[in-house]
Amino acid sequence: MDFLWAYFLVFILAATPWVELLLVIPAALGLGLNPLPVAVLAFAGNAIPVFIIVYGYRIWQSWRLSGCEKESKPCSRRRKRALNIWNRYGLPGLAFLGPLLTGIHLAVIIALAFKPGKKALLLWMNLSLFVWTVALTAGVYYGLELI
């Protein structure tokens, strides 16, 4: 029964911002959990909040909308810098660098600020999560086997 709690914690911690895949998968595999359930639960734990954020963003945005966001131009230097990064790397770049640099949840929020299509956003973010999950699980599993 204790092993079920360990897998449940993998799911919950993967869904937690700033803990996510990059910490959960190595820790779980280091504790000797089976790599396949760890990968599936870590992916699901990260993907479910992405869907919640994408579909809940419009509600949150209407709640906090200020005069600055009503205009189409950037409001601050920070927003201008973010817009330059977005224009350079686009949604795919943000999706694949997000888990490493900011965490997937913050990357989704940043992407939503630039108003991409929901389907494209979900596709790229989940594809990124899948690639990161598979690569990290395989890397840690085989790395531990070498040790």
Describe the 3D structure.
With 147 residues, the chain is mainly α. The chain has one domain (2-146). The protein has seven helices and no strands. The protein starts with a helix and ends with a helix.
Q: Which structural class is indicated by helix and strand composition? A: mainly alpha
Low-confidence stretches: none
Order of helices and strands: HHHHHHH
* Average pLDDT, all residues: 85
Give the biggest beta sheet. Answer: none
Q: Beta-strand percentage?
A: under 5%
Q: Domains counted in the coordinates: how many?
A: 1
Shape: elongated
Distance between the termini: 29 Å
User: Based on DSSP secondary structure assignment, what is the total number of beta strands?
Assistant: 0
Give the radius of gyration: 17 Å
Number of helices: 7
Helix content: over 70%
